Amino acid sequence: VPRTFKLTIAYDGTDFAGWQRQASCRTVQAAIEDALQPIEGARAVVIGAGRTDAGVHAAGQVASVRLTSAIPADELLRALNATLPEDVRVLAIDLVDERFNAQFAAKAKTYRYWILSAGVVPPALRRAVWHVPQPIDVERMRAAALSVLGRHDFAGFQAAGSDVVTTVREVLTSRVVDSAVEAAAASPVLLPLDMPPLASGRLIGYEITGTGFLRHMVRNIVGTLVDIGRSRRPIDDVAAILASRDRSRAAATAPPHGLVLWEVAY
Amino acid sequence: VPRTFKLTIAYDGTDFAGWQRQASCRTVQAAIEDALQPIEGARAVVIGAGRTDAGVHAAGQVASVRLTSAIPADELLRALNATLPEDVRVLAIDLVDERFNAQFAAKAKTYRYWILSAGVVPPALRRAVWHVPQPIDVERMRAAALSVLGRHDFAGFQAAGSDVVTTVREVLTSRVVDSAVEAAAASPVLLPLDMPPLASGRLIGYEITGTGFLRHMVRNIVGTLVDIGRSRRPIDDVAAILASRDRSRAAATAPPHGLVLWEVAY
Questions:
Q1: What is the per-residue pLDDT across B199-225, written as a single tens digit (0 to 9) for each?
Q2: To probe the interface with B, which of A189, A195, A208 has the most B CB atoms within 10 Å?
Q3: What is the DSSP letter of A128?
Q4: CB < 8 Å from A in window 19-38 of B
Q5: What pTM, to 2 d.p., does this model score?
Q6: Nearest to B11 among A114, A121, A123 (CB)
Q7: From start to end of chain A, where are the E strands?
Q8: How far apart are CA B254 and CA B113, in angstroms?
Q9: How far is CA B88 from CA A101, B57, B79, in A?
Q10: Which of A20, A23, B182, B255 has the fewest beta carbons under 10 Å from its own?
Q11: What ipTM, to 2 d.p.?
């Protein structure tokens, strides 16, 4: 009898062409399916909760897979991590109801995005933060971030050329935090691990939770929020873009490397 | 009139063969000297406070350099970071007394070392932590760490084959911390940036400050502390190794990638 497993997965997206398997590209889905192959003795299809784009990271991606192999879950975890490249790790494996599908069962996803405004990017963070050389007014960003809360038609923030049935999505939380540096300075061990107290610049985090996301939606929202923080757009521009449903009105898409799929709720 | 500058430097040591310039190797000193060359119009020698080994990181390395160029310090900072590869950054530049020498003027250096005991290494931390698959008793490590405090002959902890005038050094602080995970969990933004709450395992930090260090001294102390934490050696073995002055008694050298030159005091 095949069993269904829920995999919690983290990856550094820098050297991956995204989640989804593609011919002749290094992808996370393919890495995991390839690592499962010798265990299962056949190709097993791994279904991810979110198809992250090239360069986007994950701290808590979730995937489901059905296996006929009788391997215990803890041995499966060890065997996968022994085979996988170091930039992708399976953090946990749970045996779940056989009908569990990581994509369709997901109730909400949380993404985080990191920005360093001004200053110098510490080398340890270069893969994880978008460096914006200009100063950013965090209060303007924070006010604008509230506009995406709730149920809206996000057509104005989806990737150009997308083709989905509906562009209505619900956003549950949308918040800007800039306490990372203060938290690190107050901590008995400075965190992140090898980041010194920033010589200069301001580290800004953005967190968004929603029941679903359109392609590039988080990065388009972040690009627009940063424009607002730089006073190149009015604070109410997020609301205006939502109302317009016009992608050409939003800012340029923020780069992928600042984005992390943080958590998937079921 | 030549001016002397103090440079504060951070680097990800993963892809460097250490600090010191070597023929046909990528080193941090060479990267900075090469970046200075077009500004100065001649080779300028950059003197580092500590010669970190291959793979060792820095959050606050300090270097001194004498330049005849009339470039202002803030412009020099921008020009260097525009030229340097992204895995090395100049965080600050100060104009200092012309006799300042970063190596000889250093009063104390602080190193940090990170260990993940058991668990799975989050991909974002794979360049920064030593993964020890076994459980570690942090209280045993903490007790043993006290033995290196003060003025001792550290011959037992220096790299085999070293040749220095004296192996006596003074250690000012030596402490084990394992509050990183708790601090991260308590923080409004989880830190390090893309580290999820650890699925399993324990993140352990070690910090040591001393007036000077022998080659491999920190990594040999860490290797021995970890053996003690794993109960493979008695807690008083650090004191016994110091007394013996015998390198063959200490544990294997801990790997370089867990080590960070954190700060240099003047």
A1: 567 888 899 999 999 999 999 999 999
A2: A189
A3: T
A4: none
A5: 0.91
A6: A123
A7: 3-11, 47-48, 57-67, 88-96, 108-117, 130-132, 150-153, 168-177, 202-210, 259-265
A8: 9
A9: 43, 10, 13
A10: A23
A11: 0.87
